[in-house]
Amino acid sequence: MENLMQRLPGIGKQRARLFARLGIETISDLLQYFPREYEDRSHVVSLGEADGEAGLPVLVCGTVGTIQELRPRRGMTILKVVLRDETGSVEMTWFNQPFKKKQFHTGMTVTAFGKIEWAYGRRQMNTPDVEEGRPHGNGFMPVYGLTDGLKQNDLRRAVRAALALARQEPELLPAPCVATRHSVQPRLAVYEQMHFPVTREEQEKARQQLAYEELFDMQMGLLLRRRKEGGRQGIKCGPNGSLLRQLFAQLPFQLTRGQTAAFLDIQNDMEGEVPMQRLIQGDVGSGKTVVAALALAKIVENGYQGALMAPTEILAVQHYEEFCRLFHDLPVRIALLTGRTGEKERKTLLAELDAGTIQILIGTHALIQADVLFADLGLVVTDEQHRFGVRQRAALQDKGRSPHVLFMTATPIPRTLALSLYGDLDVSSIRELPPGRKVVKTYAVGESMRQRIYAFMRKNMAQGQQCYVVCPLVEESENVDLQAATALYDTLRTAVFPEFSCGLVHGRMPGKEKDAIMEQFSSGAIQFLVATSVIEVGVNVPNATLILIDGAERFGLAQLHQLRGRVGRGDLQAYCILLAHQGSEETRQRLHYMETIHDGFALAEKDLLLRGSGQLFGYLQHGLPDLKAADIIRDVSLLAAARDEARQVLQAGVDETHVLAALSRRFGASFERLLNN
User: Fold this and answer.
1) Fewer beta carbons under 10 A from the terminal one: N or C of the chain?
2) Which tens digits make up the pLDDT trace of 365-385?
3) How far from chain centre, in Å, is Cα 151?
4) Where does residue 92 rank: exposed (0-12), middle (13-18), buried (19+ CB within 10 A)?
5) Domain 42-137 adopts which CATH fold?
């Protein structure tokens, strides 16, 4: 049978379009559209006891007395219906809803839910939720997110109709792809208790079952993706040899505890039977590149080649230069391949790569082109891995025979979220910064401080240092943001800092032009850089000591922290100034966190709490579906248990076709993107 909304009574094409605005296109979608909160209707209050001082809605029941319709002016109606019981009365009021008059007649019994207020010496309920008769015994009434044209009762009626239909057609009820150990209550009962619970305890028990099944399904999807990307016999490396010992000996610094622990994880993986699939996450400046260099040295001394892919040319060049310094005087051939590599140089490089004389290749997307052939690729490192799609990452991995894979990201992610995002990916976190690295002093200020900020910038630049200015996000429009950036750039270079050289970068600029500006900034030819929020992740300019984020209230914590990471990469004291034009209490809290917390992981946890877990995945642009019943913050234990059970189920063997079909039904297009992006 069809799963379309129009099968439900009272829902035609027009009404179906309204539901579609909420993401509800099928009956299954509707059943998974859970209430955002519940109104407590478990206790009927007598009208004499009903008090509006608490400001909370109450449930009352009485008999209709007088019914009066007023027309104070043209185009306006006021309906007043007096409700009485043996203890008192209340006046129910509706504005511009003349059709409601037909719902009432004197002497009928009515149950009403709403806030009671005192006005003109009498108690009133403005626009209460009204039903004929005495309370049905519903302890809690669901409250749903709405769109224009739909009311709460529209959603409630539709859900009740969907549940009634599901009694005859159980396949309408979303179910986990495999029965789980938490699937204890009957499916219909679980959905009824989620939408129309009698008690809070009943609702929470139902939510936990549905949350576990949702997390279990997501983990199954992620594990299947992992299976698609690997699952074959890996390259088993031997113990650390002379090359690694030489590299360790000539490092100009001592590894931090986090770097050491991350490399030990990598070492264990590479000496095992299964291809490594590991994510290293660490704050800007935590030393992930050094750990990647050690991993690449290990694969080279085992007779294989390594590749490192970065999202931009400027970042690839920086990695190449850093690797050349780290491997100085060691017998390792390192090469760089980008879109700018000349044809003659490229031809020679590809021939040497195919012959195996190039042992480490660093580059951009250019690495995944069809004519780039490795003699024996054993390790693939992907920097800022979230900037590449699954297919792009897989294209590089396919150039080797089950190579080890190492991902790096400078976006710190709380462990609970990392588990959900990356499924069976092993995660190593580098929490601390190298010794001697100064904390970036951060200040949240208002518009009144702008001239003092400019004076401070002038002082820094006069001393030979460089500055970033990040333009405010005006709205979800690249054109408007670009206009704002261009206007600020013109003002700063002509009226404020005419004595200093200035550059502008934005998202609509051609890649080569943007790289050229960034290179000028890196070399010191440009003293201050105006940019939209597209400043390249990972660009290292040690001489940049100040970043001004104009319109800081428009950025989330994760983004503010990423931007702050553009400075503080050298020995000089660095500053981050958050200029806020306005803001709510939440904004003030967010900027206060930035002033007082410098650990990216701690900030990520705060971001999680501020945002909630409804649409967390969106800000990481990961393409995962939003959660409906589960909550990442409070369901940590459920998530870990779901991950373990999903692993066990897959190891025991399942009908993959059946699982994929079930996952597609639950997650729709977002799941398809997860497997194939």
Assistant:
1) N
2) 899 999 999 999 999 999 876
3) 30
4) buried
5) OB fold (Dihydrolipoamide Acetyltransferase, E2P) (2.40.50)
Does the reported pTM lie above 0.90? no
Which residues 6+ apart lie within 8 Å of 291 measured at CB?
Answer: 259, 262, 263, 266, 280, 430
Residue with the two structure tokens 């005495």: 134
pLDDT attached to residue 326:
93
- The amino acid present at 312, given as its one-letter code, is T
Which fold would CATH assign to domain 1-41+140-172?
DNA polymerase; domain 1 (1.10.150)
Can you list the alpha helix ranges (DSSP code H) found in 183-251?
187-195, 200-229, 242-250
* CA 663/CA 101 separation, integer angstroms: 48
| Nearest-angstrom CA–CA distance, 328 and 356 | 20
pLDDT tens-digit map of 463-481:
999 999 998 755 444 555 5
Report the topology of domain 242-271+286-409. Rossmann fold (3.40.50)
* DSSP three-state, residue 546: strand
E strands along 480-595, which residues? 502-505, 528-531, 544-550, 575-580
Pairing assessment for the beta strands 277-282 and 122-126 based on DSSP bridges: unpaired
Q: What is the DSSP letter of 118?
A: E
Crossing angle of helices 288-301 and 313-326, rounded to 10°: 60
CA angle, 330 then 274 then 178, to 5°: 145
What is the reported pLDDT for 628? 85
Give the other-Cβ count within 10 Å of 328's Cβ: 9
**Total Cβ atoms within 10 A of residue 347:** 12
Token pair 């702050």: residue: 564
At the fourth CATH level, the homologous superfamily of domain 441-597 is: P-loop containing nucleotide triphosphate hydrolases (3.40.50.300)
**In contact, 558 and 605? CB cutoff 8 Å:** no
Please list the residues that pair with 409 across neighbouring strands: 281
